[in-house]
Design a protein that fits this description.
It is built from nine helices and four strands; from the N terminus they run H-E-H-E-E-H-H-H-H-H-H-H-E. By secondary structure, it is mainly alpha-helical. The longest helix has 23 residues.
């Protein structure tokens, strides 16, 4: 979303993670997405770093200058999402991958819920996490809340967290989110690389 908002045009290679192309692993041996390979050969391979790069190129929406709070406040909330919340999300969503840890799915869900409660309190009296205007923190965090919600949508929708639910619905229904979500065919060596975001 940061790439689209910044007006940066890329060539897209849609990959299936169970069938990773050699070109992807050559660029980024960690084997996860996203991976940006810049024209000068520089590789960016973490979502938060992709956002930082795009916004450094053009912060067209002033996402780095929130209505309320500071960049440091946003960074702290994003770090909490990317650390403890993401750890709980992974174990809630894929408990079988963590059998060696003795993971109890419901316990991980409760740990994740604590972060949602933090967000719900943060949203009191404002439309977004740091004011009435979208900030970088909203865009960095909401995809993970989407994953958490979709793991058990009935349970999530019944939670007494109306502000988080409305905030998530707003981002899912945004023109920007819809712009970046078209399905693309799996890329294979020699295939065309469609322009992203789609025009």
């Amino acid at each position: 979303m940061a790439i689209a908002r910044a007006g940066i045009e890329c060539r897209l290679r849609e990959v299936v993670l169970r069938d990773k192309p050699a070109e992807m692993l050559d660029a980024s041996p960690k084997g996860t997405v996203p991976v940006i390979v810049k024209l000068d050969g520089t590789v960016i391979e973490e979502s938060i770093d992709v956002m930082a790069w795009a916004l450094a190129e053009n912060d067209a929406g002033d996402w780095l200058a929130p209505d309320q709070g500071s960049r440091a406040d946003m960074d702290a909330l994003v770090a909490e999402c990317d650390g403890p919340f993401k750890r709980a999300l992974d174990r809630y969503k894929y408990p079988n991958r963590y059998d060696d840890e003795g993971v109890v799915r419901e316990e991980q869900r409760e740990l994740g819920l604590a972060f949602l409660e933090t967000l719900d309190a943060q949203l009191d009296g404002r439309q977004h996490l740091f004011g009435d205007r979208v900030s970088y923190a909203d865009i960095a965090i909401f995809p993970f809340i989407r994953q958490f919600a979709n793991t058990d949508r009935t349970w999530f929708d019944a939670l007494p967290l109306p502000r988080v639910q409305a905030w998530l619905a707003h981002h899912l229904d945004s023109d920007l989110f819809k712009q970046i979500m078209p399905k693309y065919p799996q890329w294979r060596t020699g295939d065309e690389e469609p322009v992203f975001p789609a025009r």
